[in-house]
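This part of the workshop introduces the protein records we will be handling. To make this concrete, we reproduce a full record directly below:
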Amino acid sequence: MSDLFSVAGRVACVTGASSGIGQAMASALAERGAKVVGVARRAKALESWEAGGEGRAALAGDAADLAGLPDLARQVAEIFGAPDILIPAAGINPRKPAGDVSLAEWQATLDINLSHPFFLAREMVPAMAQKGWGRVITIASLQTFRAFQNGNVYGATKGGIAQLTRAMAEAWSGQGIMCNAIAPGFFHTSLSSPVFDDDTLRDHHAAMTCVGRNGVIEDLIGPMLFLAAPASDYVTGQVLSVDGGYTAK
């Protein structure tokens, strides 16, 4: 039974690995025997993550540089070999009223939140297909399902992630590559600091869950490992909400 949830010996690539959800997932994979390449723009923070344990390699890179993704994928594969697991977790959230979002901010958010998961996956899928096994785990959101104040461009990208994940599953699962998304509720990360810095907002969102609390990063690890391991060999094209029942109410 333990082999169902094992990632030992797998090679993973996680973008956004310098902090937050991306770093937590990258660390959890490495702690369980995977070889993990963490990618992020903040080299110093990434190097600190790399020094935190075995099986970790830091690669400074910009996930929003779409033209550079083929070269980034090549560099990733040169470290531990071609990845079996890809988690494109890098993301941004401008949090501005609709009238204040500039064209440049709109495009930058689309590039990193929606375009980079597809184009980076497309670079890595051929090697997964050769092995007949692979995993692409994207990061969705509560805003995949509902609107929040000042969430216009972020919500658009996270709605798009759900359909992109289904489309990737349709395209690649016949080759053994399962494509799924995790949709976190409210977790305290750098992206969600505006919520957690406001006691009223923080408590409101906790009360909106069935569980009665906001998430802690450890709540995401089990679902991620399920989607990364053989246990999910017949699960693809799905969005798994890890939100304490927020979307159930």
